[in-house]
């Protein structure tokens, strides 16, 4: 059995096949990720980044291909069955928490991820509340004093930090981050990004992070994938990743355009998105 944390073999998926809106989102994606690796994924809208994450999580049913997590073939597992192996944070800070439940109750849900029993059988005893408060204190946002507060009363940055904690509190085998700072103001985005780096490093979490920020892409992680038209066009790791600069990525995008892989309008859109 493979020791890889994640294996993707020949992933293919087409949206709206056989219609004028047909879009080939994944075109034979092969990827192996070792345990503890922090992989950053970039590419323009429609390049296949989020579709790949959805295929891993089980929210997209593949046309072809195999998904293995920790050596286990999960290709035909439904999303809820994979939930115990995967933590996930989305772009929208309001999609990862239940706004009418308290901070403590949201964390109680997270602690039951992947289990079939009703969440509130877990209970919220005094000892468990103290445990949750200690976890929240690590965020440095004062949320340990707001356990009874409905999450709908929190700011976007606070909710995204809470969602990050919920996604990682059980130390999942795989963490998926889908542009999880894109909707935040710059200060909150930097704060959540710092918490992300600290959490991933502390718990040695295998992580895939999709971002539209070239600065994040070159600064964070030990590996970078450049997606284009449903394929992994470039794979930077080791010394190549450490040496990578924003200017290098811009030059690479220019090469793509010059090879007629992008028309001029798409190339300009790419530059606006990444600078």
Mean pLDDT: 89
Instruction: Report the CATH superfamily.
Output: P-loop containing nucleotide triphosphate hydrolases
The strand order across the widest sheet is: 6-7-8-3-9-10
Low-confidence stretches: 117-122
Major sheet size, sense and barrel closure = 6 strands, mixed
In terms of structural class, how would the helical and strand content be classed? alpha/beta
Number of domains: 1
Distance between the termini: 42 Å
**Apparent shape:** globular
- Please write the CATH class name: Alpha Beta
| Strand/helix succession | EEEHEEHEHHHEHEHEEHHH
Which band does the percent of strand residues land in?
Answer: 15-25%
What name does the CATH topology carry? Rossmann fold
CATH architecture: 3-Layer(aba) Sandwich
How large is the radius of gyration?
A: 19 Å
According to DSSP, the number of beta strands is 10
Helix content: 25-40%
Tally the helices.
10
